[in-house]
Write a structure and sequence with these properties.
Oligomer: heterodimer
Structural class of chain B: alpha/beta
Helix content of chain A: 55-70%
Distance between the termini of chain B: 39 Å
Largest interface: A-B, 26 and 33 residues
Strand order of the largest sheet of chain B: 6-7-8-3-9-10
Structural class of chain A: mainly alpha
Strand order of the largest sheet of chain A: 2-1-3-4
Number of strands of chain A: 4
Shape of chain B: elongated
Number of strands of chain B: 14
Largest sheet of chain B: 6 strands, mixed
Order of helices and strands of chain A: HHEHEHEHEHHHHHHHHHH
CATH superfamily of the largest domain in chain B: P-loop containing nucleotide triphosphate hydrolases
Largest sheet of chain A: 4 strands, mixed
Number of helices of chain B: 11
CATH topology of the largest domain in chain B: Rossmann fold
Strand content of chain A: 5-15%
Strand content of chain B: 25-35%
CATH class of the largest domain in chain B: Alpha Beta
Distance between the termini of chain A: 34 Å
Radius of gyration of chain A: 28 Å
Radius of gyration of chain B: 23 Å
Chain lengths: 377, 315
């Protein structure tokens, strides 16, 4: 026999959600907004850093060097200045993020085969931009230096001596063009799902408490698990539609492929959903008011997003934060979703993460059901 | 199973230093309408919550429908109905959906439910607005819907907590008619109120004041046993303006337990055998009200309540 108590709760929750069109709209519009916002903003791709050029030499060799920088699209030559002071003003005001100073004797030293020095100044107040710009600048400079050296040796008829002893041949797997979206979009799936799921369910029980309906529910023969499962089920279904929404936008707009098995991806997302919805419910049983629940949801969400490895690599965190990150379910799901969607791996390769996530789900749901006593005191 | 529907022994509930219910004992028989009369905060709701098994008593025991409220609360639940003060309805759901929800939660199967819903809607006069959202209803409709939700599963025992608070007088009257219908059909009803006139409708009335059950009896018996003295109506001769002067005069007279204003007259409660109509007349004459009329009247539950509560304050 189908459990009439469970059905009654599911039906009631669905009606309540559907009759609140504004919340429903937020549920489906928010993922789109977050996806576009974070899809474009949460990127480490540093391109077109505005740079000020102070070329004191204006020789052919100097132009050659500048062209090397221009051809790599890391920098845009926004300013041509005539003094270090002028460059400083531009960098101070943030109009330029970096400056390249070519000394007056650059061209002469190059042609003489002497070492020429070029100064590269960078605004370090944004370390991400600075870091990328710095390595780009260094790399371009070194390549250029090698080319110059090679050219010099060739003119001396010594080209054969310039074979490097070791050659590193790099191969990038899964994401050969190193497109950042391949990393961000799958991560966003996890982040958005968690954010919405926790936020939505965190008020589920509290709302009944605030309205006084919880008392009426407690005295019915309903069991704690029926109430919890019944309240979760509609949100699982809605979150699932949101997941599809994100996947569709991710593949069609951001062109992030689904290399793995879609069925596996959906199944594992469902597992993750149960965990996050369970966390929301747990919050709901702890909080006394809806406001308190929202606050708790945000307070638990923010650290978990930062510790999940979405923004910052876990490997770069201090040891104790790495330990704490093991307690963040999103961490496992991010590994799973990136592995399945981008690497296209099967269940075997990610079995550790899947098992951990499942254990999390069972614990969280168990505690939520256990927390919900059918008494008022 | 014992002959009682409810059997309460020395039930006590403390919240920290505050004793909400203090050693309450009583019994209730099947088909009875028992009114629990008392001001807000006197412990009525706490008593109900303990009997429902959703609050653990600090001391004492109670058996409801043969089950121990401490250990067998889950067995009591399917058999009782409860209507809370707040009319716990889901505003987004229609009347019918609210009833259907509680029907489902109480395990009425899907085939049987439409018939039962029709019955409840009809009995409570809700049919015409069954598809209106609960949030759009006014007090009287919400109240009847809340009652419907409490009795959709045909409980043997119904707890109604201040069911008529915030509802207009005509709706209150209709509501009491419904309660009587239920009782006639064998439902036992435990109802709390702070309206004295409503308590008169009950088979028996319990008077709750400051966490204690001061008396529990039929309204008639309460008036003769719980009110030891007599009730009088005193009309001073000079009309309204002199009422206050007369009241002050009566206050200080030995043997007068309480004197108070009652519309254009004074209501006076005296200690047992302390006064006769003549002695009160002499008091009034002495205060200058030579034309005053004194009439011995039937005490009301309000007199009983005030006499008991006043006694409690002194002790």
């Amino acid at each position: 026999m189908i459990n009439s108590r469970l059905l009654a709760i599911i039906r009631k929750e669905f009606i309540q959600i559907i009759r609140d069109p504004r919340t429903l709209a937020i549920m489906f519009v928010m993922p789109v907004i977050m996806l576009f916002l974070l899809g474009y903003a949460a990127t480490n791709d540093v391109r077109n850093v505005p740079i000020a050029i102070f070329d004191q030499d204006r020789s052919a060799a100097a132009r050659d060097l500048l062209n090397a920088y221009r051809n790599a699209d890391y920098f845009s030559f926004s300013f041509d200045v005539d003094s270090v002071e002028e460059m400083k003003v531009l960098i101070d005001s943030g109009q330029a993020k970096a400056g390249l100073i070519i000394p007056p004797d650059y061209g002469r030293r190059i042609t003489q085969g002497d070492q020429a020095q070029v100064a590269f100044v960078i605004d370090g107040s944004d370390p991400t931009v600075a870091g990328t710009a710095l390595s780009a600048a260094t790399l371009i400079g070194q390549t250029k230096a090698t080319a110059v050296l090679r050219a010099t040796l060739e003119t001396r008829g010594q080209s054969g001596a310039i074979q490097p002893p070791v050659e590193i041949r790099t191969q990038v797997w899964y994401n050969p063009d190193l497109v950042n979206a391949y990393f961000t979009i799958p991560g966003l799936i996890g982040m958005i799902l968690q954010f919405l799921a926790v936020l939505l369910t965190s008020t589920a029980i509290v709302r009944e408490r605030e309205r006084g309906t919880i008392e009426q529910l407690i005295i019915t023969p309903i069991r704690a698990w029926e109430l919890i499962v019944g309240k979760l089920a509609p949100y699982v279904i809605i979150s699932f539609f949101e997941l599809l929404e994100i996947l569709i936008i991710g593949t069609l707009w951001f062109k992030v492929p689904i290399n793995g098995d879609l069925g596996l991806l959906l199944a594992l997302s469902a597992l993750f959903l149960v965990t996050t919805l369970g966390i929301g419910l747990l919050i709901s049983t702890l909080a006394k008011t809806q406001f308190e629940a929202m606050l708790l949801a945000v307070v638990t969400q923010l650290p978990s997003i930062f510790l999940s490895g979405f923004f910052f690599p876990i490997a770069a965190m201090p040891a104790f934060l790495q330990v704490i990150s093991y307690l963040v379910p999103l961490r496992y799901f991010l590994t799973i979703v990136r592995a399945v969607q981008i690497k296209g791996v099967g269940l075997i390769s990610i079995s550790n993460e899947v098992i951990t996530l499942a254990i999390f789900g069972v614990i969280v749901m168990g505690v939520a059901v256990g927390r919900f006593h059918k008494r008022l005191d | 199973m014992s002959e009682y529907v409810i059997e309460v022994k020395e039930l006590t509930k403390r919240f920290g230093d505050f004793t909400a219910v203090n050693r309450v004992s009583f019994t209730m028989r099947a088909g009875e309408v028992l009114g629990y009369l008392g001001p807000n905060g006197s412990g009525k709701t706490t008593t109900i919550r303990m009997l429902l098994g959703i609050l653990e008593p600090s001391e004492g025991d109670a058996i409801v429908l043969g089950y121990d409220i401490r250990k067998q609360a889950e067995s009591i639940r399917p058999l009782v109905g409860y209507m809370s003060q707040k009319f716990a309805l889901y505003d987004e759901l229609t009347m019918r959906e609210n009833l259907d929800f509680y029907g489902g939660v109480y395990g009425i199967n899907r085939r049987e439910r439409p018939g039962r819903l029709r019955e409840v809607l009809d009995m409570l006069g809700l049919t015409e607005r069954q598809n209106d959202r609960a949030g759009e209803l006014s007090g009287g409709w919400r109240q009847r819907l809340a009652l419907g939700c409490a009795l959709v599963h045909r409980p043997k025992l119904l707890f109604l907590d201040e069911p008529t608070s915030g509802v207009d007088p005509s709706a209150r009257r209709t509501f009491w008619d419904l309660i009587y219908n239920l009782a006639t059909n064998g439902t036992t009803v435990f109802v709390t109120t702070h309206y004295m006139d409503e308590a008169e409708h009950c088979n028996r009335v319990g008077i709750m004041f400051r966490s204690k059950l001061l008396a529990l009896d039929t309204p008639g018996c309460l008036k003769t046993t719980a009110l030891p003295g007599a009730a009088w109506e005193v009309s001073p001769d000079h009309g309204g303006a002199s009422l206050v002067t007369a009241l002050t005069a009566l206050h200080d007279v030995p043997g007068v337990v309480r004197a108070g204003l009652a519309s254009d007259r004074l209501r006076v409660i005296t200690a047992p055998n302390a006064h006769t109509a003549e002695s009160l007349k002499r008091v009034m004459n002495g205060a200058g009200f030579t034309e005053a009329t004194i009439e011995r009247v039937e005490p009301t539950l309000e007199d009983v309540f005030i006499a008991l509560a006043g006694h409690d304050v002194v002790v």
